[in-house]
Amino acid sequence: MYQRILVAVDDSKTSRRALDYALAKAHDNGAQLRVVHVIDIPTPYVADVDPTPFIEAMRTLGDSIREDAVKRMKEANVKGDVEIREILPLGEDIPHQIIAASEAFDADVIVVGTHGRRGFRRLALGSVAENCARRATRPVILIPHAAAALQGDGDAVPPPASLSETTATAWPCI
């Protein structure tokens, strides 16, 4: 069904579940996987503060996310790569970068985790997942933040033996 899957990740549990889902789908379909992490470079709000240490910390986190994704793709026997994108201050937003990455990769589908924020928190923080779904020109699969609650479902299908323990944990939400 899918031959080219793009999954957007950050350092959250929800995005790890999205990666689990994308790994399982890529494995099942023999698809190529592109993992995308977007670093949003902040605008310095205080004149005399050097943002370099914060930016370097964000880049280090991106490297850690890349290493984890590469390891998990090898464990799942999935072919693919990891792309790290940076947004300069006052540049495009994260959803724009995810969609641009999906177009450059010619993805059949985009997989994104959603944190399930409501009310003021959603208004203040926005929703990357919602904006991806609204703006994308290709299918978007949203993985809910509550996906782990499905693990106790007795009707869940066991994961393929070749998938990692982490991927097997997310299997019931697939």
From TrEMBL:
Residues 1-144 form the UspA domain. InterPro entries: Rossmann-like_a/b/a_fold, Universal_stress_UspA, UspA. It comes from Pandoraea terrae. Belongs to the universal stress protein A family. Transmembrane segments: none annotated. It comes from the Bacteria. This is Universal stress protein. It holds the Pfam family Usp.
